[in-house]
Design goal:
alpha+beta, 16 helices, two-stranded antiparallel ribbon, elongated, about 450 residues, 6 strands
C-alpha cells in the first residue's frame, strides 16, 4: 500500500511541475522536460521522478532526529518512464486535446456560427473564386489588340494616337499593391521578422511513444478550437503585448516570417473577395453602368474608334470596381464595416471620385463586417492541421520571450506518461509499480 501511495504522490508531483508560462498565457498544463535548462530530454523528468520517489520514502526530519527507520528500510531502486505523449504528437492531437479540455466549459456561441454562415455566403456567391483581375487583364488585352488611328506629329512623322482611357489613371496604381494602397503609412504596420527554421512547424519534432495521443475530432470540437484561436491570438488592430509576431491570426492563415508579409496576404485576399463582390453589384447597377457607357461613348467617338466602346466601358467598370475595393480595404483597416455584398446605400465612390480613390480616407459603410470578421473567415478556411502547426510556432515564440524560457520547445512538453517504479528494501524484498498519469487521466 505504501509503495502505491508513494508512486501516486511522486507521479502527481512530476505533473505539478507544469510550465507556468504555458499555463498563464495559453491555459495548458504540460511539463517542459527541459525545465528551463535548454536540455530537452525525458531523462530530466525521469530524474525528477526518482527524486520524488526517494524523498517520499525517506524519514521526516523529526524521524531522523529521533533515530527512527523507515518501515522495511524502503528506497527507490529505479524509476523509468516507459511511455509518454508530447504536445505535438499525432500532428498536434495532444495539444488540441488539451485545448478542448481548457475550452470544455465554454458554450459555442454565435461567433463561430456567424463565421460559418459568412463563409457559406462568400462561397455560394463565388466571391472566393471569381478572379476579377484576370477578367480586367483579358479585357485590356483585347483593347491593346485594336490598332488606333495615326496622326502626323510636329516633326512630320506618323504617330499612333493615345486612347487616353480614363481607367488607366486607376490601373496605374495596381502595381503598388493592396496593402500599401490601403495603409499608406508603413509606420502603422509591425516590422517584426522571425526565423521560422527555429520553430516547431519547420523542424523535425520530438515524438512520444504513442501513449494517449488520439483525438476524435468532431465539428463541435473544431469550433471550440477555432474559438480558442480568437481568445489567445492577436491580430491587426488588436495586438497582444505578450506576442512576438503581432499579427498572430494572420500568421495562422498564411505562415509567413513577418507581420508585413502576413498582413499583405490578408490584404490580397480581401481585395480578391471585395472585387468579386463589388463587380457583381456594379455590373448590375443600371445607372452606374450607364454612366460608364456614356464616358466610353464620348471617348471612343472623339478618338474615332467606336468599335472600342464596349471594351472601354468595361475597362472603366473594372477600374471602378478596383477603386471601390481599395476603399473597402481602407475602411476595414481603419476599423470600419464593409458588407459582404454592396447596395446603393453602401457603395462609396462615384464615377468621378474613383480617379482620386487614393485620397479616400476610409470611413464606415454603416453596416457589414469588421476586419476581424473577414479575418476569421480567412482563418476558418485555412487547413486545420496547418493551423495547429502554426499555433505551436506562436506558442514557442511567445513563451521564449519570458524569463528562463529562451529555448522552450512545445514538442518537449509532456502531457501524459507511464512510469515503472522499482522499490527495494533493506531486507531484500522489492516491488514494482506500473502507473499511467496525465492531466486528464
Amino acid at each position: 500500500m505504501k509503495t502505491e501511495c508513494v508512486a501516486d504522490i511522486s507521479m502527481n508531483s512530476v505533473l505539478a511541475e507544469y510550465s507556468r508560462q504555458l499555463y498563464e498565457q495559453y491555459g495548458l498544463l504540460m511539463v517542459d522536460t527541459s525545465y528551463g535548462t535548454g536540455s530537452h530530454t525525458i531523462v530530466n523528468t525521469e530524474e525528477h521522478l526518482r527524486n520524488y520517489v526517494q524523498k517520499n520514502l525517506e524519514l521526516s526530519l523529526p524521524g531522523k532526529v529521533l533515530g527512527q527507520n523507515t518501515m522495511l528500510g524502503m528506497y527507490c531502486k529505479d524509476a523509468n518512464i516507459t511511455g509518454n505523449s508530447f504536445a505535438s504528437d499525432n500532428n498536434g492531437a495532444v495539444l488540441n486535446r488539451q485545448i478542448l479540455a481548457y475550452m470544455g466549459a465554454d458554450v459555442i456561441g454565435s461567433l463561430v456560427s456567424d463565421v460559418e454562415e459568412n463563409v457559406m455566403t462568400l462561397q455560394e456567391s463565388g466571391f472566393d473564386t471569381t478572379d476579377v483581375d484576370a477578367m480586367a487583364r483579358e479585357n485590356q488585352e483585347e483593347i491593346d489588340e485594336i490598332e488606333l488611328p495615326t496622326i502626323i506629329n510636329d516633326e512630320g512623322e506618323e504617330e499612333q494616337v493615345s486612347l487616353g482611357n480614363p481607367a488607366d489613371t486607376v490601373n496605374s496604381n495596381r502595381g503598388i499593391g493592396p496593402l500599401n494602397l490601403a495603409i499608406s503609412d508603413r509606420s502603422q504596420i509591425s516590422d517584426t521578422v522571425v526565423n521560422l527554421s527555429e520553430y516547431a512547424s519547420h523542424r523535425e519534432k520530438n515524438k512520444g511513444t504513442g501513449l494517449n495521443d488520439d483525438l476524435d475530432m468532431s465539428i463541435a470540437k473544431r469550433a471550440l478550437i477555432e474559438q480558442y484561436y480568437y481568445e489567445k491570438c492577436g491580430y491587426y488592430g488588436a495586438e497582444m503585448e505578450k506576442s512576438l509576431l503581432k499579427y498572430q491570426m494572420e500568421y495562422l492563415a498564411y505562415g509567413e516570417n513577418s507581420d508585413y508579409a502576413n498582413l499583405g496576404h490578408v490584404a490580397g485576399t480581401l481585395l480578391f473577395w471585395r472585387q468579386a463582390s463589388n463587380m457583381l453589384y456594379l455590373f448590375n447597377c443600371g445607372p452606374k453602368v450607364e454612366a460608364a457607357d456614356m464616358m466610353a461613348s464620348l471617348l471612343t467617338a472623339v478618338m474615332l474608334v467606336p468599335e472600342l466602346k464596349e471594351l472601354v466601358k468595361y475597362s472603366i467598370l473594372f477600374a471602378w470596381t478596383f477603386a471601390e475595393s481599395i476603399s473597402d480595404l481602407k475602411i476595414l483597416f481603419n476599423g470600419g464595416r464593409v458588407p459582404l455584398a454592396k447596395s446603393d446605400d453602401t457603395w462609396q465612390l462615384g464615377l468621378e471620385a474613383m480617379f482620386s480613390f487614393r485620397d479616400y480616407d476610409g470611413g464606415d459603410c454603416g453596416e457589414g463586417l469588421y476586419y476581424k470578421d473577414y479575418l476569421r473567415m480567412i482563418v476558418f478556411m485555412t487547413d486545420f492541421n496547418i493551423k495547429t502547426q502554426r499555433l505551436m510556432d506562436i506558442m514557442e515564440m511567445d513563451i521564449r520571450k519570458t524569463s528562463g524560457n529562451a529555448d522552450f520547445k512545445i514538442d518537449h512538453c509532456l502531457d501524459c506518461f507511464r512510469a515503472e517504479i522499482e522499490i527495494g528494501t533493506s531486507y531484500g524484498y522489492g516491488a514494482t509499480i506500473d502507473r499511467v498519469y496525465g492531466y486528464e487521466e
